[in-house]
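Posted in: Protein Modeling Q&A

I'm a second-year student putting together a small comparison for a lab meeting, and my supervisor asked me to include a predicted structure for Carboxymuconolactone decarboxylase family protein. I've never done this before, so apologies if this is the wrong subforum. The sequence is pasted below exactly as I got it from our records. If anyone can share the structure token output, I'd also love a short note on what stands out.
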Amino acid sequence: MRVDIPDGKDPITYVWGELVPGIGPAASHFSLAVYAHTTLGLREFEAARLRVAQINGCAFCLDWRTERDGQKVEPEFADAVADWRATDAFDERTRLAAEYAERYVLDHHGIDDEFWARMTAHYSQVEIVELSMSIGSWLAFGRLNRVLGLDTVCVLPSGGSSPAKPPRP
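Accepted answer (user: helix_wrangler)
Welcome! Here is the predicted structure, written out as tokens:
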């Protein structure tokens, strides 16, 4: 870990709550809001989230699977996300979610009119903004956790994720 954690303190609670009290709690609320208030389908949500996790290399994010109403994506889903261009496991919305996440993270200047035409054919403006904010959250906070070494000390909350129980930032 690249941040000194006082003895007896939970690293996540300390860094995200106590260390920078003017920023950390607000960032945490935003991170959690992505899970609690999403209107995106589970497969689209997870395709984008996992693609960001794969690029960031955040160990916690790579292991996490969002659960909604007792449903999670199939175990092979992460492999399909990594192979989003060729997989036959995705419909067009799910494929676009993975592609958008990759472009957003790696080449946002390369998002061209052709891509936007495909996106707007399958996603509403509201969904595009929500997906963009979600990807931004995962990029920022997953990368923060990875860079500071917090991704190896994150602990899954009991009961899995649902809109009422999103993962810790």
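A couple of things worth pointing out for your meeting: Residues 84 and 95 are 6 Å apart (CA to CA). Confidence is low (pLDDT under 50) at residues 157-165.
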